[in-house]
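Q: What structure does this chain adopt?
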Amino acid sequence: MKDTILRLIEERQAEYIDLCSRIVQIPSENPPGDTTELARFISEYLHDRQIAHTFMEPQPGNPLIVASIGAGRGRHLGLNGHLDVFPADDASLWSDPPFSGRSDGGRIRGRGAADMKGGMTASLITFLLLAEHAPDLAGRVSLTLVSDEETGGQWGTAWLLEQHPEYIGDALLNAEPTGLDTVWIGEKGIAWLRLVSEGAAGHGSVGRGDNAITRLSEAVLVARTVTDIEGEAPHDIVPILAAQSHTTLFDAQTPLGDLLTHCSVNVGMIRGGIKTNVTPRYAEAEVDIRTPLGVTPAQVRDEVEARLHAAGLTTVRVEPIMHQSHPASVISPSDALLASLRVNAEAIVGRVPDLALCPGATDGRFWRTRGVPTVIYGPQSHGMAEPDEYIEISDYLNTIRVHAATACDYIAG
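A:
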């Protein structure tokens, strides 16, 4: 079956490139997060190929598409991808329209091509190729295409696995943009916090500088100091993190260094005040803290509170943003699905991908923290979250090949 599927991929390259281009052309920016048009396109695509599937909508504008094939007598493999993408920002900054989906020069271009419509389309195609052989599958393969990943997954994967645990399965394969020389076996945790400062309003002309905004500013500087909190990784993960410290990610020029072993901090949003000459009564900041293995979101929150109190900022509240609170997670480097993917990657791409952890977050965490081995491997991203985002067509096609071959091996046991 694997040989047949790999041959079909060679024969259908033009079809698969066209499908990815068409998917990139359908806007699904988050925010606002409405992926209805794209989900309906994929639903019709599955319907035209007589693939039974379910269209769910946990809340308006956040649809999910799920489907399963196989006899269900053996291993259950999940294939997961997300439909939503980053906002395109100012179209004038792009060489082509943000949703051109143009494929030429060996590239597929447009917002979301890398994160993660290329990988999501690879998962869709992998599922369709396996569906052609569904009567021969002793095990089960489930496809879960979700919304809301870019804003935390509360109405996407988190909702799906809570409400429909039949899609949890025995292992998960995801095609987020790792680059074909890397496979992610884990990721840092998330501890988003809201710092809130309140005081009394008044006329700005009688102020002496102490108000809700200035206290919040001081609190932000204190929160930044938690980058000194170091985690503790399992013994077999330590050398992986040490090797990864010398690498870069997402087109960055600076090596990761200690980013994966320590907390990171980004102050992403700040709000406060109503007018320049009015003493602000209220101010708040949203802080994105990523936690390493061995450090929980609750520990980080407690530490921020303790440091604020030590700095005399006892009136500043620390509130967890609960839908963005999740521990770091990792799987064993000796996992069976991972081993199969690395063997297939070596055979197809020409090199064994390095093991690594993602400093950001993926929907893989919802499976991994349920004890499900989760392996992430997808095309190299170029310009992700920037103008002129693209992926290499060769990366995209190789992702399909590796995922399809790995799925065949895993289902075969």
